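TODO from last week: model Multiple sugar transport system substrate-binding protein.
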Amino acid sequence: MPTKVTAVLSVALLAAASLSACGSGGDEQSSTSNEITVWTEENLEDRMAVQNTIVAEFTQKTGIKVKLVGVAEDQFSQTLTAAAAADDLPDVIGALPLASIREMEANELLDTETPGRIVDQLGRDTFSPRALELDTSGGKLLAVPSDGWAQLILYRKDLFEKAGLQPPDTYEALQAAAAKLNTGGTAGITLAIAPKDSFTAQSFEHIAQANGCQLVDNAGNVALDSPQCARAFEFYANLARNYSVKGKQDVDSTRATYFSGKAAMMIWSSFILDEMAGLRKDALPSCQECREDPEWLARNTGVVTALKGPDGSAPAQYGEIVSWAITRDAATDPASKFVSYMMNEGYERWIGMAPEGKFPTRRGFEDKWNKLPAGVDSKKPLADVYPADVLEALRKSPDTFARWGIPQGQGKLVGATMGELPVPKALSSVADGSLTPQAAAAQAKADVESIKRGIRQ
């Protein structure tokens, strides 16, 4: 989902100070401590309640006390920095996105031995191989991948069937469908193009990864001026200019257009699945058919997970894996037991907090995930709304996740670019005709190189 505005350091320092009273105490911890501190980015009130219930059961079973502290995503980096400086890191941090894991790695704040042992104990073959790969650096597993959400191409199955079109799982099929269905008051696709919206960056990365376009090469050099990237810029901007809704479409307007029945396709995250099924009052489908049947749009929407471009070696998609991290000064034994518990006995309830955005990275939980209630104002299992083939594709999607910069150890750069958004800025300029795709790719490269020089290594 869109990245939140980063909080100022003074706020983070205050947050860190408030956390210090229940921190791990750095060197005071021993590997046999009977009390640990856990930070979690799942800090919404209802999700904290679920986690506190799991924690209470864990304590009852093991005797290990857990101090659970919610930390906002937009304050994490600054709060972590302040805690590390005060030698007051927590033992465990949950729901950490990939860029944050790499940031901790770069600052040598991770225990890189224990995650591998946990995964081996739980069964390495029960984890998504790609999720493990994204969490691995230099042969070491940096964290335990817990779940993920996916960027998806959503399309109107009824319109595709009527027009005799194939699912939009390649550049060619996507382009053909957008062109043919862009008629009669219906846009071929609704696509984010707002230059100051991180959702534009995520949507474009989905398209770019499919064509083999990378942010950096294996040596860490910015590679956005490659032919693969120039083609991705051209393809995305052409869709936005010729077949999408006019104007600087963003995360909210794209959803509203598709929900109103005025677009045949959309790129959006899996968090839309409960909304599209009419389970959230503040984001209900509004198409004509939806007024009498709130689930109509969900039943008539097809889902494509991975996309393939002409220059791509394999289908790929943008997705986020969140993980359990164990810090360098953690009480190793209780921290290990806690993470193992959350990935086993507590796992069903963990992913059940928002199943539409928590695809399991552990196998063996597929049937349980299907039946977990999704939604906010109303709740219903996704299996009651979406067909089995769609759910299977969603569950398998973590195996095709691809991310810029993460495998190359450039997590801090990824985070910085999401703050300054140089790629959406260049992309928007192609869409409005002020830059060629090649010039936009060169501009994006120069801007990212400037950001990279400003990062403290």
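Done. Residues 149-317+402-454 form a domain with the D-Maltodextrin-Binding Protein; domain 2 fold (CATH 3.40.190.10).
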